[in-house]
Amino acid sequence: MTISCTKDFDAINTNNSGFTASEVSAKYFLTSTQVGLYAPSRYEYWRAHLIHSDRYAGHFCFGHNHSWWSDGLGYDYSAGYTDASYDWLAGYFGRVKGFADLTKEGGEFENQYYYAISLIIKGLYYQVYTETFGMVPFSEAGVDGILTPKYDAQKDIYKGIIADLDNAMSIIGSAEKTGIGVEDAGDNDVYCGGDLQKWKKLANTLKLRIGMRALGASGDDFASNAITSALAAPLLDETSGSVVMKKDFVISEWASASYGDIWHDFGVGGGASWTMGATLINLLRDNNDPRLSAYALPAPGGSFIFTDDGDANFQERLNFVIATLDDANATYTVTTSGADTTIDVPSGQYIGQPSRVNGDSYDFMRYDMFSVPSEAVTHKRGTQVDTAYPEIVLSSAESYFLQAEAVVRGIESGDAQALLASGIKEAMKLWNISTGDADTYIANAPIADISSGTMDEKLEKIALQRWLADYTDGFEAWAVVRDTGYPSELYAGVSNATIFALGNLNGAYPQRLRYGSGAQANPNYSTAVSTQGPDVQATKLWFAK
């Protein structure tokens, strides 16, 4: 059932062979509104997530010698790939608005609690949409009679989201369910299972995230109040748990996909297979993080021969490979015979691939030298249903990390170290890491200790924990890097053109995606560009300036 199925609903009500009013409700339109925002079809999953956000986040890489592309893909503007991302996000507004129209006062399935849910989904949607492109239609979007809505400033979009979230939380109040009988969302609600108080905590945690993200941006006049009010109300915590969406392996991948659909459909070990980013693997391994084996598989290893064919840059690229192994604390041996240099890498080691290597360095990035995502991430459709990773909507870990940051910044009183520890435990729960292993990590890993140090050092550790916890949530991880500047090696970009793909960004870190081709049909597009800055990937968005 889709939103369009409500056409002629009155006629159905009077048809004895159809449904009666007591047999239908908004619950049957809720699931489809939720699913595509976090698990779109394979087409968008490939082009929006893997080509752009997951790799900008530094979690995944292309560019190994079995890949169809250098890791520069996405750093050079491509209208086709960008349009796929833009069309998905811009087009998703119709689903969000459709559900709101059904459930609002006077709607065909009028129900104030479902309407409150629609406002929270709208907030989740717009956070990703505006943080991907910047200024987008918000205040005039979907307004009757306005065919070319204006592009709102990101600051105003954030304020609008917060107003919607406050409205939703007020509507929910103390209610626990959307109704009784057919009105109870129950399992049709794939985010919160029909629990309105969990929806309320989700809304408040999203409000806190947006307030913290906006804090300190030029002209910020709302973040402090949003943060303070959010901290004074219930947030996602260890009792509520995280808001995640379990994958559906029954419906077609062209309706809802996962990483595994791309991994297996394109052929394992080549084509579109991807490796793990070195920044992520090194940070996990160097801190004995128990999530390492949950996130990734050890590299197969092998004997890798590199032949000097007279290329003036051969030795520099070979040295880069060796330096990568050194950064990974890998065990290996190097032998040279004539023009051939052989690097033997024993199996079973966790080794990440550096981000953004160029096409000329392609043959030096040997696929079996690097770790790839775990089977929980690349699970095959129809198998491993219980062990597959869930889509992260908003985690309880994020709630604790944001609270820890608020304490470090002096906005809130409390024990920042205890809050960070709680966040780490909640993040590890998502990957079935035991409490004992989490406690050991917290007690021993320097990155998990903010009991001492400068404010900047503490904020860096919190940002890195958020970034680690956002694995498989590339859009949020990318936003964390842009907002905080951490991990700093990602944010610094690249400069060595012999090794790296500088792209249209000239090596700088990507700050946004360009608008899709369809955006230019709106006459307000030119005003948005003149206000925000050039329609290029290097233009910083309001929250990141």
UniProtKB/TrEMBL annotation:
<dbReference type="Pfam" id="PF12771">
    <property type="entry name" value="SusD-like_2"/>
</dbReference>
<protein>
    <submittedName>
        <fullName>Membrane protein</fullName>
    </submittedName>
</protein>
<dbReference type="InterPro" id="IPR011990">
    <property type="entry name" value="TPR-like_helical_dom_sf"/>
</dbReference>
<dbReference type="InterPro" id="IPR041662">
    <property type="entry name" value="SusD-like_2"/>
</dbReference>
